[in-house]
Specification:
The chain is an alpha/beta fold and 427 residues long. It has 13 helices and 19 strands. Strands 1, 2, 3, 4, 5, 17, 18 and 19 form an eight-stranded mixed beta sheet that branches. α7 packs parallel to α8. The longest helix is centred in the middle third of the chain and has 17 residues.
Length: 427
């Protein structure tokens, strides 16, 4: 089967930026030619996709999601999470290991990949645990996990508090050329906090979490990264101090990369003033000053990646007292729209957006992607000017825990293709 994507602006950072036609044959990119150069003259049976006025990018990659299977399938299954990803414009996702049982051995990794194969939608690259049972006491068998299909290691949801164990994890992972993704949280400082420490927390009568609970661990992991000459990826950066530490480390040549989520550059702690549990997360939403520093970190490249930290929860976990509610929000189906606001506001360029949502995650994870002849046709198409209202009732995710329901947005993913197969089409 032949598919022709016509007239879109193709942005593949470092490789291509222009209005071209892309011919796809048997799931792979066959030809890339300037618009109107005759690539469509391939005979009958060509499916034509008119991408005029739209952005065509290498498949978007979300390197930080939570799929609740195995263990909590009522919140999200691998299939529903993959469908949510496809409808959000993502061609690949990386599920974190905090399932039940934990993805800390080859059997669980293989199970996840088997279920992803049955779903037959987006690509799934499991992230395995750093430590057995996420308990921070003993390392998993990294060789076994890599062989089973794991792409990185993380105890996300739990910090690795033992610095010696984290050092060994970095050294061990370095031997397999795989990244460690660090959940940076000092549990002693975080204590029983449920929101950002400050005036909002005080006025609401809720225990606060200081910025230092995150930034102290970011600084520790940077120091361990230098000590071991390995690499570290910092998850869900939320504070100004973390951004400054990462920026300074990069200037010294430390192999540190970092991500943030749309919630941290879109919202502040004010979003929880009405005790809105759909805005409760960990790390918590921070101050406007933190948000501004996150924006600067995205603009200057300190923050390499935009990832959703997609964390589905049912109403059972959310419609309770604020301090008892589960942390996390869903993000796969809103990420592109929220991130496009960075472009509309002049924070980053369209090229910068593609770098943070496709190119950079691929580099960090060692994935071969891009819009080049001969490569699999993993492609996302975005309409940057499409106006619509977010309606969580129409989401593919099984959960609805989003603070963005009802928001008016400009820009949206409108087509997702994996190996030439169209998974989602709203053009």
């Amino acid at each position: 089967m032949l598919v022709l994507i016509k007239g879109g602006r193709v942005i593949d950072p470092g490789n291509l930026d222009g209005i071209v036609d892309i011919l796809i044959k048997n799931g792979k990119i066959a030809e890339i030619k300037e618009q109107g150069s005759g690539v469509e003259e391939q005979g009958s049976g060509v499916e034509v996709i008119d991408a005029s006025g739209k952005i065509v990018t290498p498949g978007l990659i979300d390197m930080h999601v939570h799929l609740r299977e195995p263990g909590h399938e009522y919140k999200e299954t691998i299939k529903s999470g993959c469908l949510a990803a496809a409808h959000g414009g993502f061609t690949a996702i990386c599920p974190m290991p905090n399932t039940n049982p934990v993805n800390d051995n080859g059997q669980i990794t293989e199970y996840i990949l088997k279920k992803a194969g049955v779903a037959d939608t987006v690509r799934v690259y499991p992230v395995a645990a750093i430590s057995k049972g996420l308990n921070g006491k003993s390392l998993c068998e990294y060789g076994e996990l890599k062989e089973a299909g794991a792409i990185a290691f993380s105890d996300d949801g739990n910090p690795v508090s033992n610095s010696q164990l984290m050092r060994r994890a970095m050294e061990y992972a370095k031997g397999f050329n795989m990244p460690i993704i660090s959940h940076c949280e000092n549990l002693d400082l975080a204590a029983n906090g449920v929101v950002n420490e400050g005036a909002v927390a005080t006025s609401m009568g809720l225990a606060g979490i200081p910025n230092a609970a995150e930034s102290i661990m970011v600084m520790r992991d940077i120091a361990l990264c230098e000590l071991t000459a390995s690499r570290i990826h910092i998850a869900h950066v939320s504070t100004k101090e973390s951004v400054l530490a990462i920026r300074n480390a990069k200037k010294r040549g430390v192999k540190v990369t970092a991500e943030t989520a749309p919630n941290y550059f879109t919202l502040t702690e004010d979003a929880i003033k009405d005790y809105n549990t759909n805005a409760k997360m960990n790390p918590p939403l921070r101050s406007s000053q933190d948000r501004e520093t996150i924006l600067k970190g995205l603009a200057d490249g300190t923050i390499d990646v935009i990832a959703t930290d997609h964390a589905p929860h049912s109403y059972i976990e959310k419609e309770v007292e604020f301090d008892q509610a589960a942390n996390g929000i869903i993000g796969l189906e809103t990420s592109v729209s929220l991130s496009l606001k960075l472009v509309h506001d002049g924070v980053i360029s369209l090229t910068g957006l593609v770098e943070k949502m496709s190119t950079n995650p691929a580099k960090i994870l060692g994935l071969d992607t891009g819009i080049t002849a001969g490569r699999p046709a993993d492609i996302s198409i975005i309409d940057p000017d499409l106006s619509y209202k977010i309606d969580s009732s129409k989401f593919q995710s099984l959960s609805r825990n989003t603070p963005f329901n009802g928001w008016d947005m400009k820009g949206k993913a409108v087509l997702t293709m994996v190996s030439g197969k169209i998974l989602f089409d709203e053009i």
